[in-house]
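Intended use. Records such as the Protein DETOXIFICATION entry shown here are meant for training and evaluating sequence-to-structure methods. They are not intended to support clinical decisions.
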Amino acid sequence: MQKPNLDEQLLLEPVERSDHVAVLEEAKPLLRLAGPLAEGGILRSALQLVSVMFVGHLGELLLAGASLANLTGLSLLVGMSSSLDTLCGQAFGARQYHLGFYKQRAMVLLALACVPIALVWARTAKILLLLGQDETILISAPTRGGSSRPLSRTSLSCAT
């Protein structure tokens, strides 16, 4: 029989109780650090969820328009801004405390990203017609529908 390699030996060895305790001791500080990030992500998603739930009670057509506004505005900008979580964490760990510069640069980039979003929203009706959508969906396009306008204002003030 062949002798098992090191990885197989580690897998085949019985796990002792002290190993479980060591894992728990290691997991506690990690969970303490990751907790606020997880909570922030859940609250960010809850903002979008509650808005869409309220519009969903008004009808399917308005729900489609609100979802379009959330997809093209809020989701894109939140995704771009969430890169600061990683960037600032790495900078802080490397003791480069220029976090204010990162925030300012991110705000400028997000403001520049609002320009094409606003242009797309201004031409949403024509774009949807070119894509072969029904004219009834144009009522709920991000710059047309009354109920989707508050959602577009929520998406970091990119509304036109």
